[in-house]
Amino acid sequence: MASESQSEPIQPIQVLYCQVCTFPPEYCEFGSSFTRCKEWLKESHPALYDKYYSDEALQSKLGTLSLEAQAKLEKDTAEKEVKAEKKADAALKKKMASQVSIKRMERNKRKFVTAIHGLEAFDVELKKASKFLAQKFATGASVTKNAQGQDEIVVQGDVAEDVLELIESATGVFKSVPSANVVIVEEKKKKGE
Question: What is the mean pLDDT of the chain?
Fold first, then answer.
């Protein structure tokens, strides 16, 4: 009994994760950036690289596959990498083409509200941004849907210029928004409304 209670506890296993795809190195081949993963492993951990991707290791793995299956596997891997790169490029282009518009709208005779939309394209959490603006300007701010069905932040008061300055200074939740993509739009109420 005494020897059992004094035995050493089992230590957890330390698992190495790839810095490129975040999989363990033996599973990198199933990710979309296999070539970059192999380069990282070769530079960082040459012993593991030899274990998984040396000529003998590859021959033992591929020995069970036919030539057609090997060619198909290589082709699929290359297609996955190209597709992942195109997807990342398209997302970056879409992000850079997006506009954040700050709209100053007249509510009553001398009362204004400021609507900001387009922030979600730059991975800004609208609830947090709304709370940040409400605290910064000591006014009410909320996330609502506009006429086009997009989410926007509505801040009470004429704070369009102040919001622009906040975004340009890249403070708080607005760090990821480039100031070149911000536009101020002024909208006046029509007489019939």
Answer: 79
For the stretch 121-166, pLDDT in tens is 777 888 888 898 888 888 898 888 887 778 888 999 888 888 888 8
Tell me which DSSP letter residue 10 carries.
P
Residue 160: closest CA among 109, 95, 100: 100
DSSP H/E element including 145? strand 141-145
Q: How many CB atoms lie within 10 A of CB 158?
A: 15
Q: Is the pTM of this model over 0.70?
A: no
For residue 193, name the pLDDT band (cuts at 50, 70, 90). Answer: very low
By DSSP bridging, strand 182-187 and strand 100-106 are parallel
For residue 50, the SS3 value is helix
CA distances from 13 to 9, 16, 45, 95 (A): 12, 10, 18, 41
Q: Residue 182's beta-bridge partner residues?
A: 100
Bridge partners (DSSP) of residue 112 are: 106
**Nearest residue to 177 via CA among 141, 158, 153, 156:** 153
